[in-house]
UniProtKB/TrEMBL annotation:
MF GO annotations: glycosyltransferase activity
EC number: 2.4.-.-
Region described as Disordered: spans on this chain: 387-434
Record keywords: Glycosyltransferase, Transferase
Keyword Cytoplasm assigned: no
Pfam families: Glyco_trans_1_4
Source species: Methylorubrum podarium
Designated name of the protein: Glycosyltransferase
Superkingdom of the organism of origin: Bacteria
Biased composition, class Pro residues, residue ranges: 412-422
Amino acid sequence: MPEALTEKPAILVLAPMPAAPVSAGNRRRLVATCEALTRGGFAIDLAYYAHEDQIYRRFGQHPPTDCLGMERTFRNVFLIEARTVIPLKTRANAFGIDEWCPDEVGDFVAWYFSAYPETGAALVNYVFLSRALERVPPGVLTLIDTHDRFAGRQNQYRPFRAEPNFFYTDAASEAAGLARADVVLAIQAAEAGYFAGLTDSRVLLLPPHFPAQKPFSVPERVARIGFLGHGNDPNLFSIGRFIRTWRDGWTPDRPELVIAGEICRSLPGVEGPGVRLLGYLDRLEDFYAQADVVVAPMLMGSGLKMKVGEALSFGRPVIGTEIGLEGFEPMEAAHRCRNAEAVKEAVLAVAGDRDALARLTWASEALFTRYAEAAMAAEAELIGLLREGRGSSPPPCGEEARGGGGADGTAPPHPEPPPPRTPPRKGEGTSAVRGGGLVLTCETSARSLLAADPDLGVLVATERRPGHGAAAVYTPLRRRWFARTEPGAEGAAPDLGALDVALSPEWVRDRKLPPEARAVLARAFAGIQADWETEGRIVGCAGDRIEIATLLPGVLVNGTHPAAAFLIAGEDACELRPERVTPLHRREIHAYADRTGRLPAPLPASLSFRGASLLPAGGCLLFLTDDGIGRITLSEEAPRP
């Protein structure tokens, strides 16, 4: 048989989140969909638009991304850099459907199909990336995995007196986005019905399949109840309310609430009697081994709560609200609680009654069985449609391919080893420079799930836009810089030149390096490509205080303070402590450049700092914030004390 006929047909999957590690519900959904396609006999080319990498850094967190893990799972992995600042807020009533899909995403899709013209389908995750489907060639089947309904999503925040910081739009915009696809995938039945009334595109229900990890068994007792989650708003609002409810009247004879996942970083100070934080756990088994019953006390949100399916797959009985189990078609009263108080009552009821605990366990098992049957039937319908759209059936899959992967994000089994990466790797390795008491090591690799290296030190920067030419931009290979102190590293601080990098919050915000080392690092990055640049004038100084008149992106004038600021003059650098930002009425400085094209309009402001150990005649201020890197070039004439 000719080799071309034995190759698996390929599907391009485009997502604004990585597929590894599987540390959030949207990542679990992405992995589950890719596993379904793999079971159907298709090869997956995954394109990660690094939206989440930018968002994590803007909140002072290291982005949990595992490029090597993804490369072990998929035929090809491509990285699309987020070259513009993604807006998390809008002054309009809703985001426009394309505000979160910049040109670089469509440019990648056009490049991909010129390089891989045999690919038969393109699937984008989230309706806000639907514009990329306009660059797909005619004859290629196009799909949108919706994940959630986004029209009117902001209204869910009103009872909490909060403002959303994720995408939301209106019904007309959502309909326009869905119309760009041949097939729309809904994660649960209620949303499938909604989408069917909104678009003429074919709507398919595709609940994620959760392979059974452990059989159900009635716990000996309920010593601990568990919640596992990502730090998004629905989880934070819901578990925050439940923590307060659970603590009220808690006594040591009641179960302990244990919370795990990235959400723990956003719950400082909640630990105490009845509540314990486990932090981020690498293995899901480690969490479910500590939870006798899992709670889903969700008070807001749409889509399907992946944490519920995951808990059921590990054989754990679940208690939750109607919102928490939406899409699972629950019948048991403990699966349809009205609020956090009702969840608490249901937990206490089974904790004190062995028969009630047994009924809950077997009701959870029946729920999981019904759900799994519906999910596999929906998966078969999708695979049949994809084979139809391709015009022929893919080669048969072996038992290994049908087995799928684990709910913890492990790669689905392959009947044969994956083909070599395209384009091939070149230039992997490390190089180091010394000076100013620091050793700076540059590593070129695809490993990315790291904040520090035991040998190389703290991660300080990651290259954003490597190489030249279209193909080079899309490789997961990146240069990363690590820093460690070394008293013997004498001489001037190394000058790294005009690098285009994202700085790591581990050294910018968390201050994991000593002050002297931070100043040396700032000098090394003095020539860094800034997201915005302007001019400034020193208008006052007294002792270690300094005042600078300049222009700032509007968002910084309105109250967002820098994570760090460094005054750099020649070979010297010192860190400043920001005290205040004062809006000015007169615009005295005119030079300003926004490299992102998305920052708010600049406003005149006065910056007050303490800690100035040098007063430059010229020089610059490196202004590092959650929203990027700023450089303020100071005037040659500096006032004297």
